[in-house]
Amino acid sequence: DDQTTTTYDIELIPGDGIGPAVVDAALPLFRAVADDHGLAFDITRRDWGTEYYLEQGEMMPEDGVSRIADADSIFLGAVGHPEVPDHVTLHGLLLPIRKELDQYICKRPNVLFEGIESPLQEYGAGDIDFVVYRENTEGEYADIGGREHRGLDHETAVQSALFTREGTERIVRAAFEAATERDGTLTSVTKSNAQAHSMVFWDDIVEEVREEYPTVTVERLLVDATAMDLIRRPHEFDVVVASNLFGDILTDIGAQITGSMGLAPSGNINPSDDIPSMFEPVHGSAPDIVGDGVANPLATVLSWSMLLEDLGEKTAADALWDAVTNQLADGSAPRTPDLGGDAGTEAVVDDLQSRL
Amino acid sequence: DDQTTTTYDIELIPGDGIGPAVVDAALPLFRAVADDHGLAFDITRRDWGTEYYLEQGEMMPEDGVSRIADADSIFLGAVGHPEVPDHVTLHGLLLPIRKELDQYICKRPNVLFEGIESPLQEYGAGDIDFVVYRENTEGEYADIGGREHRGLDHETAVQSALFTREGTERIVRAAFEAATERDGTLTSVTKSNAQAHSMVFWDDIVEEVREEYPTVTVERLLVDATAMDLIRRPHEFDVVVASNLFGDILTDIGAQITGSMGLAPSGNINPSDDIPSMFEPVHGSAPDIVGDGVANPLATVLSWSMLLEDLGEKTAADALWDAVTNQLADGSAPRTPDLGGDAGTEAVVDDLQSRL
Ligand SMILES: CC(C)[C@H](C(=O)O)[C@@H](O)C(=O)O
Ligand SMILES: CC(C)[C@H](C(=O)O)[C@@H](O)C(=O)O
C-alpha cells in the first residue's frame, strides 16, 4: 500500500542508576508502537551521566546540548549517583538541557489509575486527575547567588530566585491554554504572603493573563495550603501552575497520592518546532534497586507516550498510554514490587507488548 | 498553706478572623489550669490586626514589637483578612514579631492523636509523632529583592534567600538537641541538587554540627522527597529540621496527615530568658467560618500548653495537653465540624474544663 513511514530523530540519554535498565527494557515496545503507526525512531544513544563524569570529569561533552539540539525529541532515563553530589550531576546534565533548550514548560500529569491504590483513604480510581504546569527554566532554580566569609562567624550564603516577565507569562499562558482544553479551572500557586518581591509579581502576571481567558476559573492558593489540599481535596484540582521549586514539590506529592513514583511521567517542553522537548520519568536513579531487574518501567512508557503526543502522534501516544492503563486495571497482570507485585521490568514490558 | 503564686506577663494578640473567637473561648480554661498549678497570668490584650489596620493604616503601632518585648510570653490568635493582601497583613504583624524578637526556632509538633483519623489509609493513633524545627527569621522569607522595569517586556523580579552561619547553626543545633531528647534521629531537609548556593551551605553546617552529637543519626533528604515521604512513611520521622519555607510547607503537610489544621500548635521560640517567645495555632484566620461559633479551639489550647512548657511549667502544660488527648480519645466528647462533629467552640472548651 501507499503508507509512508515518518522517521523521528530521537536523542536518548539513559543516564544513571535504573535509567538504562528501564529505557533498554522499554525500547522494543516503543519500536513496536512505531511500526504499528507507520513511524520509525532514529535513535542516537548518548552514554552521558555519572559513569561518563567519573571518566571524563564532566557529565556530558562541553558541546553536549548543541549535539542534541537538532533532534525531534529527547528522552532521558535518570540522573544521580550515590558517590557524586547531586548538585554536580544535576547541574552537569539535566538542568543545563532544560535551560539551554529553553524547555520552559515542565508538564506533569497526575492520574490515579484504575487498579492503583492511593495512600489516601477516600480516593479511588479516577478520583485524581490533574496536571501541573511547572516553570522550568528560572525561578528558585536560577544559578544566582554565592557564599562569602567561609568558616567565619559572619559567613553568609545567598540564593536568588529570578522571575522574568517573559518567563512567567509564558508558563502562565501555557497553563491557561491547558485549562481551556480541560475542565477550565486553574490553580496558581505562590507564597505571596511571605515572598512579596517574586510572588506578588507572579500574582500580577496571572491577573494580566487571565484577561485573555475569561472562561477559565482561577484560584490563587499558597504553596503550603496547596500541599495540604493535595492531601485533603486532590479531586478538586485540574490544572495547577507553579514556579520551578513549588512545582517540584507539588508534583512529588502528586506522584505519591496517585500511588507510586514509578508511574509519574513528565515532559520538559519547548513548544517551538525548531527546538526539541525532553521527556523523562519523574523518578530518580534509585541506586538502591539498581541491578535487581525490578525497576518499574511504566513512568518511562508513559513519558514516551507524552513524547509521541508532543510530536503530534496522538494515536500512537494513546496506544502506549492505553496499554499501561489496561495493564494496571488487570489484577492478574505482572507488577513490579513498588506496586505490590513481584514481577521484573522485562515481564511488565512483555505484558504491555501483548496489550498493544 | 505556703503555696505562692507565680505570675506571668502574657501579651495576647487575638488578631483576625477566628483568632479572637478561639482565644476568648479558651481563656477561662487557661486561667483554670493556672489556678490549679499556683500560677497566674497577667494578660495584656492588644487589639492589633486587620481591623486596626483599616482604621490606622498599620497592623500594629510603630513601636508595637518593643511594647510586647518585656513580656514573659506572647500568644497570637491568627492574622489575615480577605480584604487586605496577605503580604500586607503578615509583613505588618506576624513576620516582624518573629524577626525582631529573633524567635529563630519555629517548633511544630505533629502527632496523630487517638480518636483522630488520618487521611492516610495505613496510619492510626500513635503512628505519627514527629516535630519540625523550622528556621524562623531568615532563609527564603528574607525581605531582600525587588522588581524593575514594571510593565515592560524585560520586567524582572528577584527574591533572595539569605542564610547566615549564625542563623543556620542555631536552628540546626536546636534540632540536634531535640533529637537527643527524642528518638535520636534527625532529618535535615534541603534542595541541594538545585539550589547549590544556599543549600550546600546548609548541608555543610549540618555536617559540622553533627560532630557535636555523635549519638544522633542524621538523614539528609531533599524537600520534594520529604513531602512525598511524609505521605509514604511518616512514622519514620522523628525530628525534622528545615529552612523557613521548607518548614512552612512540611508542617502544613504534617498538620494534614495528622487529621486537621485545627489541631496543629506551634511555638516561635527565642530560647533566651530575656526575650519572649510567641505561640500560635498553625491555622489561619479562616474567614469562611468567622462568626459561626464552630472554630476548633484545640490548636490554640495545645499552643498554650507549649507556652507553659516553654515557661518551665511542665505539669501545667501537661494538664492542658492531656485534657486535649483525653477529649479526642473519647468518642462521645464534643467535636467541631472540621473533626467530623457538630459542636461549637464553647462546648469543646467546656468539655476540656471538665477533664482538667
Ligand atoms: C533532580 C532534580 C534536580 C529535579 C528537580 O528538582 O527538578 C527532580 O526532582 C525533578 O523533579 O525533575
Ligand atoms: C501566614 C504565613 C506568613 C505563615 C508562614 O508562612 O510562616 C504561616 O503559613 C505559618 O506557617 O505560620
Automatic annotation (TrEMBL), chains A, B:
Residue span(s) of domain Isopropylmalate dehydrogenase-like: 9-352
Source domain of life: Archaea
Keyword Membrane in annotation: no
Protein name: 3-isopropylmalate dehydrogenase
InterPro entries, per database record: ICDH/IPMDH, IsoCit/isopropylmalate_DH_CS, IsoPropMal-DH-like_dom
Record-level Gene Ontology MF annotations: magnesium ion binding; NAD binding; oxidoreductase activity, acting on the CH-OH group of donors, NAD or NADP as acceptor
Pfam families: Iso_dh (PF00180)
Alphabetical list of PROSITE patterns matching this protein: IDH_IMDH (PS00470)
Cofactor(s) of this protein: Mg(2+); Mn(2+)
Keywords (A to Z) from UniProt: Manganese, Metal-binding, NAD, Oxidoreductase
